[in-house]
Amino acid sequence: MSVQDQAASSAGPLTTESGAPVADNQNSETAGVGGPVLLQDQLLIEKLAHFNREQIPERIVHARGAGAYGTFTVTADVTKYTRAKFLSEIGKETEVFARFSTVAGSLGAADAVRDPRGFALKFYTEEGNYDLVGNNTPVFFIRDAIKFPDFIHTQKRDPYTGSQEADNVFDFWGLSPESTHQVTWLFGDRGIPASYRHMDGFGSHTFQWTNADGEVFWVKYHFKTDQGIKCLTQAEADKLAGEDPDSHQRDLRESIERGDFPSWTVGVQIMPAAEAADYRFNPFDLTKVWPHADYPVQEIGKFQLNRNPQNIFAEVEQSIFSPAHFVPGIGPSPDKMLQGRLFGYGDAHRYRVGINADQLPVNRPHAVEANNYNRDGFMYDGRHGAAKNYEPNSFGGPAQTGRPLWQPLEVSGYTTEGKTPLHAEDNDFVQAGNLYRLMSEDEKERLVSNLAGAMSGVSRQDILDRAINNFRQADEDFGKRLEAAVQALRG
After folding, report:
1. Under a CB-based contact definition with an 8 Å cutoff, are residues 288 and 231 in contact?
2. Reduced to 3 states, what is the DSSP secondary structure of residue 443?
3. Which CATH entry fits the domain spanning 37-159+193-368: 2.40.180.10, 3.20.70.20, 3.40.190.10, 2.40.50.140?
4. EC number(s) for this protein (predicted)?
5. Which residues are catalytic?
6. How far is the C-alpha of 152 from the C-alpha of 447, rounded, in Å?
7. Cα separation, 471 vs 173, whole angstroms
8. Which tens digits make up the pLDDT trace of 60-71?
């Protein structure tokens, strides 16, 4: 019996909005075992679409953020891996817009809080905009987008108390053991970056690269800060959040104003497609990393931020990013979280900013014109004039190329809502335990202290025990020390 079944109440079966009973609320429906997610998964679409419309007008997640423009420069030849033109030659420059953010806080929240940081990049390439929407951590709390609305609800204000509740946070994490790895990251020393300039970034998901010959490679992106990693202790963050809620936004703006342009070294891990099936971890599981010993990070470029936006609302708040914005030679993977985000992000922006959000200056392509048959809607500027609004047509309108942006994925089997098959070393705790054991004694003490402080507010012993047990399964010493620290705080 699963932990979800054990925790089930006597309220009756979970249903869709139309009243149909839900068979599986933990796994999206896929094309065959481990295949890409299907659009016919009505529950997934209903949950994501409803979630995107719960609040207006600010972003439901990543509301609090700052942005800047800059350039990306290629420093290595990667043409044997991808045919993307912006990566086609050493020295090639592409304009970039970056937005950094916290996840759970609202627009008025403080910057210096313990929370993952969004790390979103928009490359204005000659083949259209390429958006890479990542975080400052290489992993995430969940592996399936069907659980994303539930997860974010636990991080937001409780519907009764109006506050974030430790019961909700650790109840969900305890019932979702795949979160153990990310929670260990979040409550460790890198959980509160000192600024946006002093943190690394990650694409987090696995993406497909395809070369000119149609060969497929799986890749993970890494952005290593050239300023060095700097982080805050919980005490330092608490003080800074109260004294200067805009600390990170101010730091980014002022550093660019004085000509101290922040930069990052861009690297990728590259896995030949044929190696994915037998890799020891599921390479498409967002709660897992690829150990660098297996697939070293290879430098491919540098990006630098050197220009501030002139109007925060127009250029930062109205900026939109979608992981579905690919260019030829780059595409998605069967990562179930990524598959959900391909729909969820664009849908959120169509609702939040409007159906013509892509036409705003910060969002529209800068190196090529968008050329399609989308018309009308709120804030439509009439740019297409009297041109025909249908395809195919006999009036010289834009036509399809016949060449997909990426290679198709092979799928087989029946549609299913089951879990993705485990690889040889797949479980929810091994990488969290490895991360813990890599830490120094001082780092372990701070991790345990940070977690114990957050968990001390949990009111129910069963929720506390289940959450602690996840860390004990990652490492016996981790769980033992955490249990003792929580007990000491609770008296």
Report:
1. no
2. helix
3. 2.40.180.10
4. 1.11.1.6
5. 62, 135
6. 23
7. 11
8. 788 889 999 999
